[in-house]
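Section 5.1 Outputs to date
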Amino acid sequence: MSQGITLILDQVSHAWGRLQVLDSVTLTAKPGEVMVLIGPSGCGKSTLLNIMGGLLPPSSGAVRTEGEIAGDCLNPLTYVFQDFCLLPWRSVEANVALVLENRLTRQARAERVCEVLALTNLTDFADAFPKELSGGMRQRVGIARALAVRPACLLMDEPLSALDAQTRDLLLEEFVTLIGRAATTTIYVTHNLPEAVRLGQQIVVLSRRPGRVREIFHIDRPLTGRSADDSDLKDLEHTLWRLIRDDAAVAERERIDAPA
């Protein structure tokens, strides 16, 4: 897999017309680090992710990367969305291969697809179609497809939010292994605080709109050295909730009071 890059945001702000969504956000994600973005609804987490990925230009400020892009990297910044985005008429293998078509030889493509299917425990389901898979397995296909291009930075927008609680917990444990093996820089947006403390090495708390960096927490422990029952992670989870609780309540009232 490709080595991660450094992703730097310098005083990034964004507005939709008169609505200020983000205000002077400055962050640095280090190579191979998992940065988690949390905050109340409407604070600009997904907008910030789109700016990081180059899908949306900031109104002001800049985004830049540092570090060498490995030669086997076909797409430096790659998304995993909450929607699985699979083509129903393609098999698992063909869905993963889609991002490699016209970019690798047939043999190289087959080898890389085989590699990421093994990494995501999907080898036995290579010939299955999306309708034959559970939600968790469909999301694994989406992750396999993202890893197939060997990204230098993986951008994940609430990838587990569409799943039931049991499937989400199981897939979260798989994420720990996958992200560790991939060694790519990862930006992970979530509303789920247990996910944040389980995966985050740098946890960024954004304020309600306009989103500003309210606080940053660092967990200097490998992902594989953590457990969902760790007391320090539970304590941090409570701290995060105390930080965003009032903002979340105000954001919810604004949503309810908004004109239809």
